[in-house]
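Exercise: predict the structure of this protein bound to zinc ion.
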Amino acid sequence: MLEPLLASIREAGFDPQDVTHILATHVHLDHAGAAGSLVRRLPKAQVYVHSKGAPHLIDTSKVVASAARIYGDRMQPLWGEIDSTPAGRVRTLEGGDILKVAGRRLEVHYTPGHALHHVIYFDAHSGELFAGDVAGVRLPGVDYVRPPTPPPDIDLEAWSDSIRLVRSLRPDVLYIGHYGAIKDIGQHFGRLREKLLDWGEFVLQAMRKGKSEAVIIALLIEHTQPELQRVARDPHELQRYEIASNYAMTVQGYMRYWSKKHPERL
Ligand SMILES: [Zn+2]
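Solution:
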């Protein structure tokens, strides 16, 4: 997907050769998998990422192994080659940092929950907030928010705190990774939080009954697919939700969370 990205930069009126900042919200492959390939084509670009994520851009082997557990033999067709980013091209961030980029002043806020190293970028002047995955998955024009809960480090308490933090910034618009601009922010986060906790509880109860991963996946689909079918306008939309964050990955993320963070509840 490098060529379409470079073409879009040109279409927006910029020369890719002049790009100086690549701001990663987190290192998951669908967000920063191309960082290593990009810096090889954008000679002036540095990749900005939280300090806990930086090692995984400099050496992508753990992220690739983790994704391979989810995607299996679809790894190559989905992602292609995933290049590491040379350490000299990575700048590490912490919450509270300020970046001056392209005439903007961007606040960096640490927002773990979806990933341990997740950050958002907020332009307080324009009210625009680049939210990555902390604000969930939602197709433009569809009134449905899906919590993306992949392994290995979703954390429901941290995620709730991050939602609270993002809302306290009072943004006017959220740009989410999957996909586009969100303006009904209060309602959007309300729905995300509700579903995040509802699915968590659903998976926990199934685990307590001794159900296997495969069975829990089937149960979650049965539990939740009808409501998505009601709001989606065509099969393609259903598929796009599944591509952004599929049920198998969702269940794996929650199962790992409960086993690792709350074994006392199992
Ligand atoms: Zn992600």
